Amino acid sequence: MESSETTPRAATTSKAVGDIWYICHGILGTAVEVFGVVGNVMSIAVLVHPDMRSSTGILLTSLAVYDIIVLTSYLFLLSMDQIFQHTRVYANFLTDLHQPTYPVWYSMSSIAFMGSSYTTLAISIERLIVVTFPLKASAWCTESRAKAAVILIFIFSALYNIPRYLVFSIVPSWDEATQKNEISLERTEFSKTYFFKAVYSVTMNITIKVFLPLTVLAVSSCFMIRAVRRTGMVRRNLQGGGLGSNHSKFSAMVVAVMVFSMTSLLTGAMEVILLRINDQQFQTADDCEVVCAAVSAVSELMAILNSGINFLLFCVFGSKFREVFRRRFCKRREMAARNSRSYTMSLS
After folding, report:
1. Which residue ranges in the chain fall short of pLDDT 70?
2. What do you get for the CA distance between the two ends of the chain, in Å?
3. pTM
4. For residue 288, how many C-alpha atoms fall within 13 Å in the half-sphere facing its CB?
């Protein structure tokens, strides 16, 4: 029998779901997003330096731009919403800012996420060529081709995500109680069609956004790890080779970026499949609510980590990146320390 009151099970389930999303995105997500945006901005400042000019540097700069958009979108769409709902600091955030701009952020995040995945794919192919065909890499992996790849990836991502622009519509209405114009966010009829729900959101997304890049990344990772190990053995036998060492470390950094990207793609695929199964098989809303919420929250958090962790990977594996970073951001501190030492010596 239907009841207008919330059952204890539904109330407990709803609270558990709210707690999962608040922990993953209100707390952890916000920290990673803020750190990631700052880190990616600093990465761009380093990567555009003349000493870092290369085809890989161009691709990494494009990746950082996409990651900033992804992180900013998640911060606005998920994290701020979770924080304001939980703390009640800005009770009207949903109606004042979130809903009116949601379609724009939703479309931008979809384009940026796909652009980030395929840019990582381009980086993996470029580094695979470098480690597999080192003598031909300079002729094949040019800056002009890297720029062309960046443009093509953006165009492809924008065109592929055209259906995303048609998912939501903003519907204005007059609220008699408050005597104000209210804005509500509603799904369009297109978003309820079989093409969007089954063909585009499931079949096409899993194939084009997950399976294709995941397969290429996995194959590239295997070949790159094998090539890096072979290069290390040759270098040890020859007892030297700083250049080979730098190439190996850079390739290791790219492999680390690829591993995080593959993990994000896998969790995203699990989310899509589970939610699709939930729509078809579960009879009530709370049968899979906690499990589905947990999988969705972890999947979205992995996407955030994938976009926010690259700066740390650059610092850990990129010796040249660290050197340029110190010259860019620590120059004034070093000059101040040098002047202080000079002044101290002059007084002694």
Report:
1. 1-15, 91, 175-179, 228, 231-249, 275-290, 331-348
2. 91
3. 0.81
4. 14
